[in-house]
Amino acid sequence: MSVGWINRTFVAKRGGAPLVVQALHPIFRGEVNLDIEAITARLAARGLETPRLVRTATGEPWIEAGGVWRALTYVEGETHASLTPTQAREAAALVGRFHRALEGFEHTFHFSRPGAHDTPKHLAKLRGLLDAAPDHGDAQLARAVLDAAASLPTLPSLPTRIVHGDLKATNLRFDGDRARCLLDLDTLAHGTLAVELGDALRSWCNATNEADPEARFDPTIFAAALEGWAPVVRDLVTEAERRSLVGGVETITLELASRFAADLFEDRYFGWDEARFDSRRAHNRARTHAHLSLARSLRAQRDALEARVERAFR
């Protein structure tokens, strides 16, 4: 059932009812399930629906069988690769309720991935791969990503909160146009809203798709998302967080471009769509072009987008 590119996801039946069974990517250890269990309990107590961890018959939160396997409750609904303005508004309001529900919640993570959104680290990795293989077939594309990243805005020091960590469009479950819940909770972590919303909006506001070399940033979706999110979190968000939102989108867009570009050299990390591409490299090449185009489109609209943020928080 999964439209993601990391975990392998299946739907099984237990007593006639659907159950999600996942084989986790090796980047995740089994302890991530303890974090999911604790944080979803908090969300449920605050009235938010989530997939819940289903322990084994012997009470184990996961099993090891050629990797980490776990089961989660199945949430009915649909996922969408792209969002309408109405869906973006609903999704952003749900994200705001998620952030509000976790405000002040103290949790020490059993599992974390330091540097998951360390943009300088990802750019340095790509630069190192390029330096080691300057004649690689995709060297020119890698250089274009690094050139674009050289003029990224500097994000200020920001407070950290518990964030979802991967709010792309396909990680939201919908019932019609109503955003029902967030999916794929392995990336829960302490992080900043600049990164959290940056990753969400680079996905939601892509007017084409994540493999379109002419991807463009849709300001209408951006405005709709702000209309949903800002009223829910207005009293929680600091001025520095507010002012970092647009820069966060651009930063995460180019960070992801650099990660796809790095996998052009390494050819081992991201899953790929075998129905549309003849290789992982071909898919990653398209993804890199798409995110580079998206970042350029956003950059051309930066002033207008920042003004839209200010209006949303008045």
Largest sheet: 5 strands, antiparallel
Which architecture does the CATH hierarchy give at level 2?
Answer: Alpha-Beta Complex
Structural class: alpha+beta
CATH class value: Alpha Beta
Shape: globular
Tell me the number of helical segments per DSSP (H or I, 4 or more residues long): 10
Question: How many structural domains can be distinguished in the coordinates?
Answer: 1
Helix content: 40-55%
Labels describing this entry:
10 helices; 314 residues; 12% strand; globular; Aminoglycoside 3'-phosphotransferase, Chain: A, domain 2; alpha+beta; two-stranded antiparallel ribbon
List the helices and strands and how they pair.
Layout: E1 8-14, E2 17-23, H1 32-45, E3 53-54, E4 63-64, E5 68-73, H2 85-102, H3 119-132, H4 139-149, E6 161-163, E7 172-175, E8 178-182, E9 189-191, H5 193-204, H6 219-233, H7 239-243, H8 245-266, H9 280-300, H10 302-312
Antiparallel strand pairs: 1-2, 2-5, 3-5, 4-5, 6-9, 7-8
Helix pairs in contact: 2-6, 3-4, 3-8, 4-8, 4-9, 5-8, 6-10, 8-9
